[in-house]
Amino acid sequence: MQIFGVDIGGSGIKGAPVDLDKGDLAQERHKVLTPHPATPDGVADGVKQVVDHFGWTGPVGVTFPGVVTDGATIRTAANVDDSWIDTDARVLLGERLGGLPVTVVNDADAAGVAEMNFGAGRGRRGTVIVLTFGTGIGSAVFVDGVLVPNTELGHLELDGHDAEKRASSKAREDHDMTWEHWAVHRVRGYLAHVEMLFSPELFIIGGGVSRKSHKFLPHIEGIKAEIVPAQLQNNAGIVGAAMRAAGH
């Protein structure tokens, strides 16, 4: 079975049909830039461009970089425009897509569900935390395979700042840090803080940086939990969005 998945990020909106039997993209994904400011109307136009690129006419799952309740309502909007808050994204996107059925889910939750079913977390029990490093830091927490939704651990305080302002991939780029410096002085401290709070057995590191895990993971020491890169890499959100849409 194929369902369409769209992943809305702070820098790009990407999507593709997903083969839910394999947990992988059925076609090469299409990406457009996230508009700035990332208003509901502007982002909805971007989602429509991605879906229209494939001529898709079935259900669509969409991730959002913030808290999403009831598969529809946006509660936070850290890396997009504040006008998203309290927006019914399911109605907005459904109307923009000509009435197609739409399901909306937190972006990191979607990536986590995909990794737990088809990737690095498959078959793992205990506490598993998936962290996506990109424009911000997304999180998905699982206990014996069951998701605790909308955890938003990227907004924990770290060194007096929002953690994602210190340890995200964007922070590394903005401050021109080497991979080693970022790993040792930013990511390690963040993981240590999350580990102190949740004592997970496994961290799965996702987002765009997962493609380059060899450049930074070997430099992270002193964490008791196992740390592995996401196997679905930056496609995890698309796959998870499609899985959520199929479930609805």
How would you describe this structure to a colleague?
Belongs to the ROK (NagC/XylR) family. This is ROK family protein. It holds the Pfam family ROK. With about 250 residues, this protein is an alpha/beta fold. The protein is about 30% helix and about 25% strand. The chain is built from 7 helices and 15 strands. The protein has helices at about 40-55, 90-95, 105-120, 165, 170-175, 180-200, 235-245; strands spanning about 1-10, 10-20, 25, 30-35, 60-65, 70, 75, 100-105, 125-135, 135-145, 145-150, 155-160, 160, 200-205, 225-230. Strands 1, 2, 3, 4, 5 and 8 form a 6-stranded mixed β-sheet that branches. A 5-stranded mixed β-sheet has the order 11-10-9-14-15. β2 (about 10-20) and β3 (about 25) form a beta hairpin. α1 (about 40-55) packs across α2 and α3 packs across α7 (about 235-245).
The number of helical elements comes to: 7
Unreliably modeled segments: none
What distance lies between the first and last C-alpha atoms, to the nearest angstrom? 14 Å
What is the number of beta strands? 15
Q: Helix and strand string, N-terminal first?
A: EEEEHEEEHEHEEEEEHHHEEH
User: What is the structural class?
Assistant: alpha/beta
Helix content, binned percent: 25-40%
Strand portion: 25-35%
Shape: globular
Radius of gyration: 17 Å
Mean pLDDT: 96
Biggest sheet descriptor: 6 strands, mixed
Pfam family, one: ROK
Protein name: ROK family protein
Family: Belongs to the ROK (NagC/XylR) family.
InterPro entries: ATPase_NBD, ROK
